Amino acid sequence: MIVQLGPFRPRAVVAGILALVSIAALAGCDAAGPPVRQAAEGAAPQSEAARDAGTGPQAFAVPPEETAWQWFLTLNEPLTGGKPKAWESWKQTSAVYLPDGSKPLPWDQNPPLPEPVVEEAKKQGLDLTRPFHNLDTDVQVDGLTLRDVYRQDVRYQLLMNRGTFDYILATGVYNVNGQEQRAADGEPLDFPAESFELKTSWIWIGDDQAIRGQLAPKYYIVNAYYRDGDRYQVGQAALTGMHIISKVRPNWVWTTFENVNNPEFTVDNAQPPGPQRYELPIAPDVEAANAEHREALRQQGSIFAEYRLNGVQSEFVDPEGQPILLASSQIESAFQHSSSCITCHGTASYSVERGYFDFVDRSDGGITYYTGNLPEAKLEGFTSLDFVWSLKRASRQR
Question: pTM for the full model?
């Protein structure tokens, strides 16, 4: 069943998502982030249905593709206009896993922008009251990069909501020392049900107005920066993809959205390069949900009409025992046919003797990624990080 939303009303969208998880957990409405960050309206306590949805292998309270769309819509409120979106109030991992392994600032505080970033932003006339996103890596999990048609690397960013942040702070696993202690004590992590993470992908615009002119009608654009050797690159970036990850079920729920125009602006690694496309099939129910919601967004004049859902994953295998796959053309570009979000993250674990588990499957001399059920035998001796691989970004405190 696809819910007919008609004209979008923020409170109606918020009400829909409350069937699965509280809007307080999703939008972090009580949390301040970098300057003038906007949170969604209509905060409410978590419902019993939200907790019930996280138990057992039963189906979602509403179709999973509808749940995913409600998450995406709520995270991107306001759906029209130039104000920052709700998810832009979440903590970037660069503000959580600090280079010296020290304790991060409280939720309602963030490190100030580096002064060179501020100076360059002023020169470009960028609005310093809006969030600035630290796109701190251009490397995918396979160690490769994705290129755009402007001969630049696509860049990436990880964020977390307050539920995730508070648990990391409370358990002290924001550095390797804390994770190592948990492993030594044999205490696996168990994030609360209100935890969310995002992984986003971006085409770098910088201050190139020609690139911006091509992308602005088709992409959501933000202020951004990244460290480039001993200097900073400053400007703007266009959102190409978004993984939304929720602990609403014990093994988490994995959804991914991407911009429908990506094949026009990103290229594969073939010779010569061709358009980078999504290569996995999209289920008919997902296609129907996409058509429904994108048309409603189009009628509202929202830039998010340019985005679609690729799929939802909450199980390792299908009823026939075959691995379930899910990927993004922007985040798992070169290994889409061996990409299982839940299996890869299910191996997130740490051992005092061996460090982080190697999620690369090297069986029979090959190099691929685990799909389907977890390699339980190989995980012996490792302590679970509860599917949260972003913890691998932590540094050791010395």
Answer: 0.87
